[in-house]
Amino acid sequence: MTRAARWARLLTTERLGAPGEARDPERSPFEQDTGRVTFSSAFRRLQDKTQVFPLSKSDTTRTRLTHSLEVASIGRSLGERAGRLLSAETLLPEGVSAQDVGAVVSAACLAHDVGNPPFGHSGEDAIRTWAARFLNAHPGLDLTLAEREDFLRFEGNAQTFRIYARTQARERDGGLRLTLPTLGTLVKYPCPSTSCGPDAGHAYAKWGYVQADAPLAARVFAGLGLTRQSGERERYVRHPLVYLMEAADDICYAVADLEDAYRLGLIGLRELLDVYANAADLGGHAWEEGAGEDHAAFPANRAARAKNRVIARLVDDTFDAFRAHLPEIEAGTFTSDLIHSIPEYAARYAPLKALARERGYESTRVLQIELAGYRALGGLLDALADAFVTRPDGHDSRKLQQLVPEEFYVLSPTPYHEVLARRARGRLLEHLSTYERLLTLTDYVSGMTDRYALETYQYLTGIKLP
Asked: Where in the numbering of this chain does the HD/PDEase domain appear (predicted)?
């Protein structure tokens, strides 16, 4: 297959579940994807989900929503540059522009964190810890090894694919019916829970879809021409644009989160400006007093301008890495990520992440609130698992089942009137297997916002009344 033919597959306008959907004459299918993600309820809930600093009282601290918007801005820039590169090499399919490539990356960036549970990565750990405790306490549950792994290794990335390929529009095939390129770019780790691991290489360090969604993922990969790797493990080649989405996220993690730490008083201005100057390769003299208009600015504005310079430099360096490694990326043999492929990464960019980890991610307040959230999620799942799996006919269990919205009981395309009929008969759970009941719980709890999860836990335990 020629490179042009391969990119024609990689940038197809086909939608999951609606291959023949008519095109909007005013907007490209990829711009429509951006709209579908932006107006989805799962995306809106990011406004009250933790980025780094949970339940912050500052109105300037980033949430998952503002983080995702910033990632999408950087992703669009990187995508459009990639589109112009492909255009110059006559690799863009007819009717697809450089702006369309930017729209694909932007849409994937907007959606990339939607599957994260309350309290971010701490929430993922809470669900995994609960799953290990629950499954060890109930070894006789009717679950395959692969199904158990979906909970023991709960992964926000897999939940993101599940939301947009299935649960955001449960009554129909394909969920929101995003284009295959957007979904392919969204699957950062193209393998199931049983095929990932730290020794599997960068693209398979984590996993991208639960067992229930494996057929949907396979349809996406097949439509894009992404082949399965050789060997016994189920691992597919990454979509080339995944690397740009991943890099945009890495840039925001490395740079923008430090600005939040400064605003919250966890990092001093001089220390912040020094690490930014090193990353932007400007030299310490750029921050000496009296050197240019930046030094007449308010401290927060100086920090913001320095951050912008670092982001601009990182975008340039990242795109250079993408261009240099494009043949390997297309062939599926590239084994790193773009940020770590930048020659000066260790000297210029690694200190950014080290400082963010030390002063931000591991700060006392962050750890205290994450611990509270950790316990709340475990308590919620204990109560719900009792009602859904181990004691579904108990009096309290029936009440808990009624608290969970009816759409969470739908795990395959089902007309709404049929769901209503099941509820009227009190039989919403009857058609669900043990695996599907547990998926219902993780779908419900992982979709909660930070505050809603804490309040629901308090209500269920009697700590607080509605």
From this structure: 60-263
